[in-house]
Specification:
Receptor-associated Protein; about 0% strand; about 75% helix
Length: about 200
């Protein structure tokens, strides 16, 4: 975990404890130009996500865009400490497919329109780029996301089933997030070994 990621993690914990954002930013030292610059922008009326976007963060542009997007989703949903932690998880080994689902679920549950959420989620792998196009076309034509996901053959069938159930029951954002959790768990080494052991019998 990089120094900046550790600072983000500390920030998330401080926010979770109820510490105000400006005060939390002071915890990195009054002589820290990056965080003090972000604090000044926040005190000047900018949102935290906008302050991050306007600052020279120690990461590449794709990761910066992802961080800004997730913080923005957290601001809208009142769960910024959670979205910051999810970003850190992604930077430390969580698969792109899990992160795609998680970001999508967080954005939609925060009130971001589905098409806008699809458009803004970063996608590095061609499979996810193609999926974004398929999802966009399906929604614009009045179709179901689960159908587009099934046709794209990017996610395991249980993910599609969970998303479809969410669409049918009105619990779509929640089911997308739960699907991300289950998918992440299924990718853990201990889980794979357990499943392999079960299938021997």
């Amino acid at each position: 975990m990089s120094k900046f990621q550790k600072q983000l993690n500390i920030l998330a914990h401080l926010l979770d404890c109820g510490v105000g954002l400006p005060k939390a930013l002071d915890s990195f030292g009054l002589d820290n130009d990056l965080w003090q610059g972000i604090k000044e922008k926040v005190l000047g009326g900018e949102t935290f996500s906008t302050a991050l976007e306007q600052s020279p963060l120690p990461m590449n542009e794709d990761n910066k865009k992802m961080l800004v997007l997730m913080v923005k989703a957290g601001e809208l949903g009142g769960v910024m400490e959670i979205t910051i932690r999810r970003f850190i998880d992604n930077m430390n080994g969580v698969s792109n497919h899990v992160m795609f689902l998680r970001m999508f679920g967080m954005l939609v549950s925060s009130g971001v329109p589905v098409l806008e959420a699809i458009k803004n989620i970063p996608a590095k792998h061609q499979s996810l780029i193609d999926l974004k196009k398929s999802l966009d076309i399906e929604i614009r034509n009045g179709g179901m996301l689960s159908y587009a996901m099934l046709q794209a053959d990017v996610f395991p069938r249980f993910v599609v089933t969970m998303v479809e159930y969410g669409e049918l029951t009105g619990s779509f954002p929640e089911m997308v997030l739960r699907a991300a959790d289950v998918l992440e768990e299924s990718e853990l080494p201990w889980y794979k070994k357990w499943v392999k052991k079960l299938t021997r019998y």
